[in-house]
Please model this.
Amino acid sequence: MTDILASFLAGADKSELRSIVYLSQGKLHPDFVPGVLGMADRLVLKAISFTSGTSETDTERLWIETGDPGKVAETLISKKKQMTLFSEELTVERVVKGLTAIQDADGKDSQDRKMKTLANLLHDSGPLEARYLCRTVTGRMRVGAADMTILDALALAFATKEDRPEIERAFNVTCDIGLVAETIAEGGMDAVRGIRVSVDSPVKVMLAERLPSVSQIVERMGGRCAIEYKYDGIRVQAHIGKDSVRLYSRRLEDLTSNFPDIADSLRKACGYGEAIVEGECVAVDPETGFMLPFQNVTHRRKKHGMEEAVRDVPVRMFMFDCLYRDGEDMTPRPYLERRGALESGFRLGGQIQMTTMRIVESEEEGEEFFASAIGHRCEGIMAKSVAEDSVYRAGSRGFLWIKYKKDYQQALTDSFDLAVVGAFYGMGKRAGRYGALLMAAYDQETGRFETVCKLGTGFDDAFLDGMPALLDGTRMEEKPRDVDAEMVPDVWFDPAVVLEVVAAEITLSPIHTAARDMIKEGSGLGIRFPRFTGRVRDDKTPEQCTTVEEIAEMYSMQAHDSDGLSDTGPE
Ligand code: AMP
Model:
């Protein structure tokens, strides 16, 4: 696949490369730019019926049979094409223009305009073009061109394998794969090396590893490290410009309208002309100033009623990192310097605070600090390296940061964020509804989703009732191409919805496909006694869910404490 992509990208028109790369992922622009393609299936069917001259009833019948508007378009357009003689070429520019018009259409008659724009494109499409056009416009285009695959292909097409890490760095600091593609095609590796962190292009966040005890953390950090409270809120990356501030979530959504007060306070508190900082936004009790659990701050993520939410749910931002200030990329600087840039460049107080931090040199000091974090209603602690090489590693999970949570003391493992890839119809009390879900972790290397458990516990009635609304929009007729599963559910879903799950242990599993053959030939890893925590992780994309590598690592960590090696596998 990488080879095919590489030769295709190498031969593409440079001026179109940016759009081509976005389109190969079913998008029109990088994720941080607002707006997604998601035209309703029925409207697409209307356009297909209109262009192909097939009745709406027949079009819909085919859709019910296949569940995929792309297949419907392909079949019906191919029938019609045998009859038409003339059509205007479908160029990249024309497709992008049409799709953008559809995405942005708003207000009066917008449904009709969307339908007509699509019909216009379909009119000049061949059957295959029609298939991909309809999948793209409904937001279902997945050919498996994950970010990492495209970066591999760019290295092959325009540079060498050895340049791959630098290309990935450029992507990690801009989150814009189209920009990287255009830059390398036009200016080669020199231009790629020139790509820097800048205000208004979000940086992929740095993530933490985990270890099961404070003593192991202090030892791993070389006997000395910084430890911060780990706040239970929403991570925000703030891009503070001269006149405006934009806030991004860790999945690159624009959160500025959810935290207008924080944006405002940050601009006032910031002594730099421009800066990029990160922190955790946490809800606080207006009376006591105490921090409140995560559920409270989620009221700020609603689409409507923001004014009331801003009034009723006061939040504070606890800053923990500085990625950029006044023309200076801070990501290559060590942790203490970055933290120093926050302390010296911001007026702290009120809504804008620093995370509580302490340098520790022993297990005892670490445990004491952990107890104080829990006492202040935090989730646990984040240990951070203070070594010379403690850079901000955009987009990577490593041991420069190590998290340790309260849950680790009760259960064997951290919670998992897993993607829903299938559902089983319920029985007994759950008859007529989905009774259990097939859950998968993400393999970053291959861009595939691999199953780890069948989840049927922790659903309350409201969740069971809401499942179709949550999931059915991503229903697939057959197993999605990027899912590896042996267990066959009644219904397949394109991985889109992420749920938080806790479990008792990780075991070798003959049926689940996560980390297959990695630990034992013929076995994957599964999680036992999984339970839904009630938290839908709509702040995470499926690609940001717990990775197969992390599960393999947790498995080896847990193997120290229990034999955990039963080969019976989870349900
Ligand atoms: P997890 O989501 O469990 O992988 O934990 C990592 C998350 O903890 C980060 O993405 C932040 O949202 C959050 N967090 C809370 N406090 C801190 C802190 N002091 N430093 C870094 N991240 C923090």
Observations:
- Confidence is low (pLDDT under 50) at residues 559-571.
- The first helix runs from residue 2 to 11.
- Residues 208, 228-231, 235, 250, 280, 320, 355, 382, 403 surround adenosine monophosphate (CB under 6 Å).
- The longest strand covers residues 315-325.
